[in-house]
Amino acid sequence: MLSKRLSSLLKYVDKNDRLIDIGCDHALLDIELIRSAILKKVIVSDIHENALKAGIDNIKRNGLNDKIEARLGNGLEVLTENDSINTILISGMGTSTIISISNNPYLSNIDKLILQSNNDHFELRQHLVKLGFYIVAEEFFEDNKKHYINIVFKQGKVKYKRCELKYGPHLIKNREYLEFELANCERIESLIPNMKLKYFEF
């Protein structure tokens, strides 16, 4: 059974998506995409051989070798133009790694990115908007006492305010998310010692 973290991504995949799951780990999400008849075929990849082997074992166990193709390699480098992939899914990685993956000429063929970054969502939004994508959906949720954010980008240009890039044009309307951010701010403030700023005294 999929975790809430992984199952939250299923609704963003459409039947016309030609998808690669980068950093697929155990390929559980991809197996569910096929078993649920959301997609007919998927390419999965991972840079770590042991992780990919675990995914391949799961794919074989479910009899889906002909529907899920596993490739060892770094991000979009595993693709060729013949693959005609138009959708990227990445979960469980940090923003710096996702940005590194996105800096690839193949990105011009991509219509949609489904991303679940561990950190630096402001930087992620800012970077992909600069690359010519806009934000179509965002989701904030908790799973196993950890908080996650899903962001879906599509190719196109939209001008955003700085606060929209920082907090998300969709999440900025989400009360639960704003309360979470406010609690974080208060937690940080409580860590600042009450000391005189003597270096700024005149």
Describe this structure in words.
The protein is an alpha/beta fold and 202 residues long. The chain has helices spanning 4-7, 28-35, 49-61, 95-102, 121-130, 162-167, 175-191, and strands at 19-22, 42-46, 68-72, 87-93, 112-117, 133-143, 146-155. Strand 4, helix 4 and strand 5 form a beta-alpha-beta unit. Helix 4 packs parallel to helix 5. The relative contact order is 0.12.
In a few lines, what is going on in this structure?
33% of the residues lie in helices and 24% in strands. The chain has a seven-stranded mixed beta sheet with strand order 3-2-1-4-5-7-6, sandwiched between helices.
Which helices and strands, and how do they pair?
Blueprint: H1 4-7, E1 19-22, H2 28-35, E2 42-46, H3 49-61, E3 68-72, E4 87-93, H4 95-102, E5 112-117, H5 121-130, E6 133-143, E7 146-155, H6 162-167, H7 175-191
Helix pairs in contact: 4-5
Could you describe the largest sheet, including whether it forms a barrel?
7 strands, mixed
What is the radius of gyration? 19 Å
Structural class of the secondary structure composition? Answer: alpha/beta
Overall shape: globular
